[in-house]
Design a protein that fits this description.
Chain lengths: 116, 115
């Protein structure tokens, strides 16, 4: 069965400092990995994904994530945090499904709080 | 692109009433997903369709919940009768390997309160 773990309920970081939001996964076969962000009272917005290829993936708003197969991790990073990055971040995993998209399984979410 | 469109955005209803949530996926997408978000349970997949056919409905809580996709551009999630514990945000999402590269795009959600 697929599963995703986000071990931190909340991450606090000062503006301008680097940030990391952790994610580990469990899935049979090759995973598709995703990060989404949710601002208050809004839907989930896609940030970035790893399907295949380069382990370092760059996404929206200056975020990046590194796929580490041996550690089954896909941590989200940003070199310099902004107050506007404060939001709820979700990691998700799915598997290839041929001619259609397979379901996404989400982690529990990590609340990122960036202090000015 | 208009994105995934959901209606209503907000609904308050009385226990026992029927609730119908609607979704228009992104044009060209052949997969559609219904998720529910609550504080207690996080994001749960209720059901998903590929090419208008339900593939996995194991997340549907009980028989009070039903979902249909009569064509490629429309889906409904119905709760009958509704109960206070159904209060949640219901998200519809869509995707296609060819069009979106397996990225699933979400609507803004339908915020349901059952009193």
């Amino acid at each position: 069965a697929q599963s995703v773990a986000q071990p931190e309920d909340q991450v606090n970081v000062a503006e301008g400092n680097p940030l990391t939001v952790k994610c580990t996964y469990s899935v049979s076969g090759n995973p598709y990995l995703f990060w989404y962000v949710q601002y208050p009272n809004r839907g989930l917005q896609f940030l970035l994904k790893y399907i295949t290829g380069d382990n370092l993936v760059k996404g929206s708003y200056g975020f990046e994530a590194e796929f580490n197969k041996s550690q089954t991790s896909f941590h989200l990073k940003k070199p310099s945090a902004l107050v506007s990055d404060s939001a709820l971040y979700f990691c998700a995993v799915s598997r290839p499904a041929g001619g259609a998209t397979n379901k996404l399984i989400f982690g529990t979410g990590t609340l990122l709080a960036v202090q000015p | 692109d208009a994105g995934v469109i959901q209606s209503p955005r907000h609904e308050v209803t009385e226990m026992g009433q029927e609730v119908t949530l609607r979704c228009k996926p992104i044009s060209g997408h052949n997969s559609l997903f219904w998720y529910r978000q609550t504080m207690m349970r996080g994001l749960e997949l209720l059901i998903y369709f590929n090419n208008n056919v339900p593939i996995d409905d194991s997340g549907m809580p009980e028989d009070r919940f039903s979902a249909k996709m009569p064509n490629a551009s429309f889906s409904t999630l119905k709760i009958q009768p509704s109960e206070p514990r159904d209060s949640a945000v219901y998200f519809c999402a869509s995707s296609s390997p060819g069009v979106s590269g397996n990225t699933i795009y979400f609507g803004e959600g339908s915020w349901l309160t059952v009193v």
